[in-house]
Design goal:
alpha+beta, Glycosyltransferase, 4 domains, five-stranded mixed beta sheet, four-stranded mixed beta sheet, 28 helices, 9% strand
């Protein structure tokens, strides 16, 4: 699709030849536009722009067709810093707004509400410009076919790129004088996107060698000094770390575990980790994880908490459990809806002041803490009079007046706890106690600052990931409140966000809307499977199985294999995408493949096995071609390749031996292993047998707590001693 890049040069060339009159300022600059009626926080942020914005829908598309105007589609999200910058610079500028209103039908899209629209047009922008990001700006024909686009534009020409006003004038002039050329380009690009989405990599039957090659590809990009992969900017890539842990478990290659530990340790000590309030920011602007891009996303908390829990299970190191608890506690404190579901994200801060909510000066620490505590905190987090941060480091804008004081510091631990404690001549436990006391005080002080915007919409896929992470964490950390939080969130999604039995993608302000996408089904099924293991409550497995069946019926592409992003119930767009590549979140196809492999093991249902088998070959081809972009696919392939084990615990739920057996299993990192406690209640046990036939007859042997170890649903004799079960588990290595 490189031939479309010529349009970029065409627009830049036209910026010097177009001589359109300067428009007058827009009328009624304070009157809200149509976005005032939308539920999306992002759309509502633009409701008072002088731009005549439309939400995506029939009204806007009909207006474009009736007036034969091109569509200007702008996509972003409410916690996107550069989206805020472009709004203030361009969309609030009356002259730019007048250009948009006169020559275009302008549509604003929340990419988190409409990932289908965003993915479709981001594919076009990447083909046209060679890059992507948000805010995304793309120009469409009245039929919705993209013909030119980009990401952020400054209002006027600078930094060697055309300004937004120049782009608008140029596109308007081209539409007036060369419309047929643009229409043809839109047709060709739409056809190319559709063809690319239907094309598939040749299937490859997966083998353990494919997993080893994937781990080797990550090793080639590994940063041995700071951890992570590649250079700045550096993203957490939590699902890559989860894959490497599975590769280590399979091969016991110490370098794989070292990559995971070095990365998790560096991130936990770095500024990307909110050292006071908990949780992780979206990414680091530098290679050493020091200065982050300060927004916080729910999916990052879910994926990273899972990685830290798994590292704790694999190594037994308490620091990973502490970081996981820190993540969970942040989410439960700051991102939880009173009804139990989880909000989407928190902002980085206002334009010109990104990160100011999170940073500190030495003087502020001294005013907030007793002298010994202030001194300890400054030494531990490297706080100096000169500081290490100014807002332009993160956001690229000029600092506001409130930020012009010197000495702002992003808190980051320069040394591991053990090394610092040794230098202080105190125990690690004492150091942790003192730091925790200081952090509690600083959290109260920080709470008095102006808090960044919180996007309070509830997204089904992100909630599914968080439900699974909390259930997994509650099990491994022996923390019932995490499991209870997962239970409440699952109940909310399955009731309130599934009106009349139809799963929806987004809930906000009393409205569940937008038909659920593939990612919603795949992530929610994963979360419910984890919740079933954590609670033993059969209803969660029943729900997971039913949703997976719906996922197959609605999204499965029997001709080409794999799942499409949208179903027949969704709006028909100019192309229907099928995504395999991971982004900040794992791909829906890879999550779905892992779900099918696990459900196949639990239920033995033929339809799950057939789809899982075909998915394994498809993902094998994808992962062989570019393993670094398919970490979640490699996790699913590890699940598929096995060996898989199932452990049934039989006995009273409060039997000390049953509890000990369960805790011993849950404390260990045991991928490809499912653990279920057979319910003592006969009705519950019967319901479990209806779903999982191979649990039938797994009862306490001679009245004693018993564990049945099964491989591919074939179970051995019961183990009745905790130590005997422990030896069997250790032998799996």
């Amino acid at each position: 699709m490189n031939r479309y890049v010529t349009l970029v040069g065409l627009v830049v060339c036209l910026q010097h030849t177009t001589a359109m009159a300067q428009p007058a300022a827009s009328a009624h600059p304070n009157r809200p536009n149509r976005l005032i009626h939308e539920k999306s926080p992002y759309l509502q942020q633009h409701a008072h722009n002088p731009v005549d914005w439309y939400p995506w829908g029939p009204e806007a598309l009909e207006r474009a067709r009736r007036d034969q105007k091109p569509i200007l589609l702008s996509s972003g999200y409410s916690t996107c810093y550069w989206c805020h910058v472009m709004e203030q610079e361009s969309f609030e500028d009356p002259r730019i707004a007048q250009l948009m209103n006169e020559h275009f039908v302008s549509i604003k899209v929340d990419r988190e509400e409409r990932p289908d629209l965003d993915a479709l047009y981001m594919t076009a922008v990447q083909a046209l410009s060679g890059q992507g990001g948000w805010p995304m700006t793309v120009f469409l024909t009245p039929e919705g076919k993209p013909f030119w686009g980009g990401t952020y534009f400054p209002p006027e020409d600078r930094w060697g790129r055309p300004g937004f006003a120049t782009v608008l004038r140029s596109i308007a002039q081209m539409w007036a004088t060369r419309r047929e050329e643009l229409m043809q380009s839109g047709d060709q690009l739409a056809q190319a996107i559709q063809a690319a989405s239907q094309a598939s990599v040749s299937p490859v039957t997966p083998t353990p060698a494919l997993l080893a090659a994937g781990a080797g590809a990550f090793a080639e990009q590994y940063d041995p000094v700071h951890g992570g992969f590649g250079s700045a900017p550096k993203f957490p890539q939590a699902h890559s770390l989860s894959f490497l842990l599975r590769a280590w478990y399979r091969t016991r290659d110490p370098h794989l575990l070292e990559m995971v530990e070095t990365t998790l340790d560096a991130m936990a000590r770095g500024g990307i980790h909110d050292q006071i309030g908990g949780g992780f920011h979206r990414y680091s602007t530098d290679a050493q994880w020091l200065v982050p891009h300060f927004e916080k996303m729910l999916y990052d908390q879910a994926l990273l908490s899972r990685a830290y829990v798994e590292a704790y299970q694999a190594t037994g190191r308490a620091r990973y459990a502490r970081t996981a608890r820190d993540l969970f506690d942040y989410v439960l404190r700051d991102l939880r809806d009173p009804a139990g579901a989880f909000y989407a994200a928190e902002d980085a801060g206002p334009v010109g002041g990104e990160g100011l909510f999170y940073v500190w000066t030495a003087e502020e620490l001294e005013q907030s803490l007793e002298p010994p505590a202030a001194s300890l905190v400054k030494r531990f987090y490297g706080v100096t009079a000169g500081g290490n941060f100014s807002p332009e480091h993160a956001g690229g804008s000029q600092p506001s007046s409130s930020a012009q004081r010197g000495g702002l510091t992003v808190l980051a631990a320069e040394l591991p706890l053990e090394a610092f404690a040794q230098g202080e001549r105190i125990s690690v436990e004492e150091l942790i106690r003192r730091l925790d006391e200081a952090r509690a005080v600083l959290l109260q002080v920080r709470a008095k600052r102006s808090r960044p915007h919180r996007d309070d919409k509830v997204l089904t896929d992100w909630n599914g990931l968080m439900i699974g992470a909390l259930a997994c964490g509650g099990r491994a950390l022996q923390e019932p409140r995490y499991i209870e939080a997962a239970r409440q969130a699952a109940a909310f999604i399955l009731s309130t966000v599934r009106p009349q039995g139809e799963l929806r993608h987004r809930y906000r302000d009393g409205e569940a809307a937008i038909p659920a996408f593939l990612d919603d089904y795949a992530a929610l099924v994963w979360g419910l499977l984890e919740l079933f293991e954590a609670t033993g409550e059969v209803r969660w497995l029943q729900e997971a199985s039913a949703l997976a069946q719906q996922m197959l019926e609605r999204f499965w592409d029997d001709a080409g294999g794999g799942f499409t992003m949208t179903s027949a119930s969704h709006e028909a767009l100019v192309a229907r995408l099928k995504e395999f590549t991971d982004g900040a979140m794992p791909s829906g196809n890879s999550m779905a493949a892992g779900d099918l492999a696990r459900l196949m093991a639990w239920t033995g249902r033929a339809e799950f096995e057939r789809a899982a088998r075909r998915m394994a070959d498809l993902l094998g081809g994808q992962a062989q071609q570019m393993p670094q972009a398919h970490a979640q696919a490699l996790i699913a392939l590890d699940e598929w390749l096995g060996p898989r084990r199932e452990v049934v615990l039989a006995g009273s739920a409060d039997d000390p031996d049953v509890l000990q057996m369960r805790r011993m299993m849950e404390a260990r990192f045991l991928p490809r292993t499912e653990v279920v406690a057979r319910p003592a209640d006969p009705a519950e046990a019967k319901a479990l047998e209806a779903l999982v036939p191979w649990t039938a007859g797994r009862v306490p042997a001679s009245g004693k707590a018993s564990a049945y170890i099964c491989e591919s649903q074939v179970c051995g004799l019961p183990v009745t001693e905790v130590e005997a079960l422990k030896r069997a588990v250790e032998a799996w290595r």
